Amino acid sequence: MSELKRITSVEELNKLNESGELTGLFDLPNEVYHAGPGISSSGLKEILRSPAHYQVSKEGEKKETPAMALGTLIHLAVLEPDLFASTVVISKKFGRSKDSQAEKAVFLAENKDKKCVDQSDYDLVTGLAATLNQNPMAMKLLAGNYTEVSAYWTDEKTGVLCKVRADIINADTVIDLKSCINAVGDFKSSVKYLKYHLSAAYYLEGFSKFMPVNFFAWLAVEKSRPYGACFYAADQITIETGNTLYREALDKYAECLKTGKWPGYPMKFETISIS
Length: 275
Description:
single chain; alpha/beta; two-stranded parallel ribbon; 275 residues; 19% strand; Lambda Exonuclease, Chain A; seven-stranded mixed β-sheet
């Protein structure tokens, strides 16, 4: 198993990339991973939509939707509870009086490096985390060898720098924590529609180069009480289908890098039938 390397800045990642040494397992902040070099599974999904969409997504900072912000908060509360406790505070409402504004200034100064969240969101994520902590199967999965670990490698066929970041690695299984509305029917549909299987195959490809992982699983938890949780394993067909998808996207990405052309949707008519 490869040694876990600690990186704290995008500049460090770029230097390793320029020297050809950006390969292996890394312990780095989430924001450094997303801002640094390499193509992720979410990037490959954008490529499959169209290379033009991928290019636009990379031009500026990606706008975080409320759903995305809540998902990030859930991950922090469940996977990194100590960091959640030290960096997240409940926001307060202040009046317009001079005294209220003075209190607001003090509050903002005391919490300038922290994330302020609404009481309702705070209650949701802490309630969800507490419920998972009482679920024996969830706790067994969450007690993994690694949490929020990243892997980098160079694809042999295309020479493209690839990257993945796992929520949890438990023994020989990569585990992805997914918050959702309905952990039963809706989640099963999302695996194909949102291309979760592409991510599963891509993650296994990356991490298997540095550690003995062979399986991929999802822990799906609902974002409303009673915070129901379901557990799913990706079978071989799911992984093989995901492999085909990510390979298609990676080859297309490499071609775009080579030609400098990032096309949009195909210029052709398609038939729509509602029968």
